[in-house]
Design a protein that fits this description.
Blueprint (H helix, E strand, L loop, with lengths): L9 H21 L6 H8 L3 H7 L3 H21 L7 H18 L1 H12 L6 H24 L8 H17 L1 H8 L5 H17 L2
Helix pairs in contact: 1-2, 1-4, 1-6, 2-3, 5-8, 5-10, 6-8
Amino acid sequence: MKIQQPRRSRIQNKNRNVILDAALQEFSARGFSGTTIDQIADAAGLSKPNVLYYFPSKEAIYRGLLVGLLDLWLAPLRELDAEGDPVEQILGYVRRKLLLSRDYPNESRLFASEVLHGAPHMTEVLSEDLHDLVAEKVSIIAGWTASGRIAEVDPHHLIFSIWALTQHYADFDVQVRAVMGEGPDPYAGAMIFLEHLFRRMLAP
């Protein structure tokens, strides 16, 4: 017999979200090892016992963030459609990834920090979920290349380059803004530049 889990109240859901939002700020700035429960509690405006009521450990909070982050991170690649126009499909992926960096910079930095530390909490997910999704899309891109619908390109390195060129604006935000100064939002110019770059590269 399946045991039903008790439904959370509105205030419980609110407190969990407050804790996760505070933890995201702390983890993205300090990394997993540099963040403490006390720091998360202070950022959330809650007591440490209150935080531990909702999450039994720092690792439980971190894993909760990563689970939600993975769905967010994979969604733009899932939308790559084999039936669509190849160039427009790839450019659409570039746009979605850049907007993801703009709208979710802390999530991007959290993911980057986890990977830079060897992905100890995501090894299985990266080697299974991410690997399988990328393999599926690599096959689509390879088919477009083989049929002459886009220029010859290594599908894996194409995807890696999209990750690097879009996530850079979130992960190195301080550097980008230091170099560009107080001028216009860098994302508008980045969108124009990246669309031009990939459209020329992919043209058959």
